[in-house]
């Protein structure tokens, strides 16, 4: 078995080849005319161009039809690091791998310590903002606090709008959701949504979704917590609500369960070479899921995560087998 730890050492090289290979092939097939002046190579310190690999599966956001890649990124814990630290420098490479590998959806929250500051700095320094489908949240109990929090989020993220604004864990949603709608009407966010990270919140999430029809919901869904597939995911699909998935690794607990466990025999045929890919591919194989947002601060793990968004999806039989394995 190729474990996540053993496999990841080579994944960045593979991912880089996937990203840069098409560019190199294109240059060989269409050389510049002899009379054309040679283009000097950028200096070593210049940012590398953001290239879309073109291989990530995309899904449409029902409200508009906009396509987004099924593998996104979160910021909880992994992006809560001091600005200018060694961890921050590593995140510069991690976020480069993400965008040059074809990713776009990034989810954060003002509740994640300084994650908004870190993500905002990385997007600005790398020139990634226009490539980013940026999602953050509202998490306060009254209108005045929500307004102050929103202004602070824009400042921390170094932007004048976000693509998705969500009510965090349904907190004061009766106040926060109408406020989010007002911001949408003002053009400050394109989509609005609600979130929860526990199965205990599914029933309330579904009730609010049916009553309020947000553009997005964000919920937990994994091989060892598949309850969202019972009612919530089918309801979202029927109502035309986009779905982001959090907790695909159950806060990392799933990796402890597979430390000495081989991948299923059919994994190679599904293009899966690590358990991280398997867990992510399980989530995006549900037709109601728009994107999954695993958080990582390591470039090799980011490259590994992106591989889950390529190739064939898992069959219903394969998904069911995984659920039985981790029940």
- Total beta strands: 10
Instruction: Provide the β-strand percentage band.
Output: 5-15%
**What is the domain total for the residues?**
1
CATH topology: TIM Barrel
Widest beta sheet: strand line-up:
3-4-5-6-7-8-9-10
- Using only C-alpha atoms, the radius of gyration works out to 20 Å
Fraction in helix = 40-55%
Overall CATH class: Alpha Beta
- Could you state the CATH homologous superfamily? NADP-dependent oxidoreductase domain
Tell the overall outline. globular
Uncertain segments are 1-54
Overall pLDDT score: 87
CA-CA gap between termini: 21 Å
Instruction: Give the helix/strand class.
Output: alpha/beta
Can you tell me the CATH architecture?
Alpha-Beta Barrel
Task: Note the total helix count.
Answer: 11
Largest sheet: 8 strands, parallel
Q: What is the H/E string?
A: HEEEHEHEHEHEHEHEHHEHH
Q: How does this structure look, described?
A:
This protein is α/β, with parallel strands linked by helices and 327 residues long. The protein has a single domain, classed as NADP-dependent oxidoreductase domain (TIM Barrel, Alpha-Beta Barrel). The protein has helices spanning 4-29, 86-100, 115-126, 143-157, 173-185, 202-212, 232-239, 253-257, 275-284, 299-307, 316-326; strands spanning 58-60, 67-69, 73-74, 105-107, 133-138, 162-167, 189-195, 216-220, 242-246, 291-292. The radius of gyration is 20 Å and the shape is globular.
